Amino acid sequence: MLSSAMIANQVNSHATFMRRVMQALATAGIVESKGGREGGYTLRKPADRITLGDIYSAVNSCSAEPEDDVDCGEAGQQLDTELEKILYEAEKKTIEYLQQYSIVDVMKRVDFFASDPLL
Fold first, then answer.
1. Residues 50, 43: contact at Cβ < 8 Å?
2. Residues with Cβ < 8 Å from 105, sequence gap 6 or more?
3. pLDDT computed for residue 111 by the predictor
């Protein structure tokens, strides 16, 4: 169980920002949160079963398919719609790619706790 302050310290961020991220992860079922003085966050399933794609999807709000009804009379709106479609496809490909990597895969590449002997 790690607090948002402990996590924020390890990734050189602010605890308030980290709480928002962790809330999104909790909503997606990736982490479990426990309130109170002894509270914090823990993974809900083994790290090797949580992919970067799962995490990306949880913290990114742009996951819905773009609208298909376009007013073709306005070039600007049509361009926006087409760009949204392209970005949606790029995001889908990004998530597919990130699904190849689990938390354990990343942990093998980076030693997050080497700098803090208490963790």
1. yes
2. 48
3. 72
| Radius of gyration in angstroms for the set of CA atoms belonging to the chain, rounded to a whole number | 18
Using the predicted structure, report yes or no on whether residue 24 has a pLDDT greater than 60. Answer: yes
67-86 burial, b if ≥16 CB within 10 A, otherwise e?
eeeeeeeeeeeeeebeeeee
Distances (CA, A) of 55 to 52, 90, 94, 95, 119: 5, 17, 12, 9, 23
pLDDT level of residue 81 (50, 70, 90 thresholds): confident
User: Looking up tokens 């790690």, which residue turns up?
Assistant: 2
> Are 104 and 47 contacting, i.e. CB atoms less than 8 angstroms apart?
yes
In 3D space, the residue among 96, 118, 103 whose CA is nearest the CA of residue 31 turns out to be 103
Distance (Å, rounded) from C-alpha 65 to C-alpha 111?
Answer: 37
- What's the predicted TM-score (pTM) here? 0.61
Query: What mean pLDDT do residues 33-62 have?
Result: 88
